[in-house]
Amino acid sequence: MPSTLIAGAVPGTTSPHTPDVADTTLTGDFATDRDTATGLLRTLTARITELPTRGERTEHQQRTADTLHRGARTLRRDFLARHAEQVYTELTDGHTRHLRLDRLAELAADRYPGLVPGRDLLAADGRLAQRDKEGWEIDLGIFFHAVLDSPRAGSHLLCTMLRPTPDALAALPEYRRTGRADLKLATVTRRDGIAHLELCNDAYLNAEDDAAVAALETGTDLVLLDEASRVGVLRGAPMSHSAYRGRRVFSAGINLTHLYHGEISLLGFFLRREIGYIAKFTRGLCLDGEAGGERWWPQADKPWVGAVDSFAIGGGMQILPTLDRVVAADDSWFSLPAMEEGLVPGVANLRLTALTGSRPARRIVLWGHRLRAGDPDAALLVDETAPADAMDAAVERAAQHLDNPAVAANRRMMTLGEEPLDLFRRYMAAYALEQSYRLYSPDLIANLERTWISRRARSGGGLR
Prior knowledge:
2 domains
């Protein structure tokens, strides 16, 4: 049935040369709707880019921009609700091409102008602090929500993101030969059949950003592809920061300094992290070029031990439910400051609820409840605690125990029961949309400003 799109108009936001979204009707015919939608979206995008940048606008100009965005996003969502699967099928040549997030978005911007922001718009926003960005990534969130919400397209995209990265394939021969890879912000070292993946973002107490996510995914691929190792260990490297000099730190979560400066991206961090290396911890790699959707089954997966030293904050804590054994130093602690930051904590809302139950999960996510390794509630996340000076031996024992041929089959069946691919796909569809809006929410910007001002006042900084 035809659908008329309605966007609330603000005086002065249309011109004789600008069609009104309220007059636009989608018919359900793909070719007709494509031409209608892209034609109007190009016009609305041009109107927005003609305005001064967000930081230089008057209140009236910002209201105009908000109205134009609202109309454009209504149209994008309506078009994609009808045609996302056909768009994805066309972009991937009938699901025969495996396009990662960034390449898929670029191709969509080229073939469907206005539907997805192009490189120039994203690059312009990428040079600005988070508070000054236009927020074009919200439109990426709308696009990937629709793609992931389609069972066929979404499953194909998830399997594409489970394939080894080009960087990992390039580094693999040398890693196989030497048993070591230096990925700058991460290292991989093989010892006695155990592969140790260490995050080493020393300047930020092992906080994660786009570059760290890329390094961790490459390292994860190397661990899973290398036939000479049978178990993976995830750990944080020792730090040089004055408060933790010489001590290992598992993770300080998202790098809030980089987020404040606008250097954390929706695709390169938030989505790539969840359906890239963390999904590979859970599901392994997809190596079959023809695999996709319901027919996919892991072809390269291994058990993982998490070794938590000092603390696992935010994103660090999010990882723990995906690991097969978590060994924590007895003085370590865990927290998910989602409300403090204003973000959705990855897939933690799904996994923690399944792991701990509803009430503890709400205390952790909604109330910022901090857990210490020895707390009774922490037993739902931590399998074993050890004194800090005995962690190496405890981690080694855990890895040796998981070095068993029967482990892989059993963990695959557990994952199938705990988190079926279709459940994960539907969660990630909603997450793509919710997190894209959260990134540009006034409360998140205010939280960043308060954190930054407080950090500058302390003049030490660098803790996240």
